[in-house]
Amino acid sequence: MSTDLLKRITSDPDICHGKPCIRGMRYPVELILELLGSGMTTEEIITDYDDLESDDILAVLLFAARLSQVKSIYKIAS
């Protein structure tokens, strides 16, 4: 199921400067994360953005979780 969800996240240089977006539409992942972070619920987001589906929100969260899975963090010399 997670693979199917991640297919909803696309990147196209001609849409939002290549930022990861939902299903080729002009809804960047970062926008949805900001809305969730501001306290909006999935239902509120879907109500405000008619062409989004609940699986799109789940895909955004899964995508963000995968991005945060790093093995090591290295300090860059200053």
TrEMBL record:
InterPro entries: DUF433, Homeodomain-like_sf, WH-like_DNA-bd_sf. It comes from the Bacteria. Coiled coil: none annotated. It holds the Pfam family DUF433. This is DUF433 domain-containing protein. It comes from Synechococcus elongatus (strain ATCC 33912 / PCC 7942 / FACHB-805) (Anacystis nidulans R2).
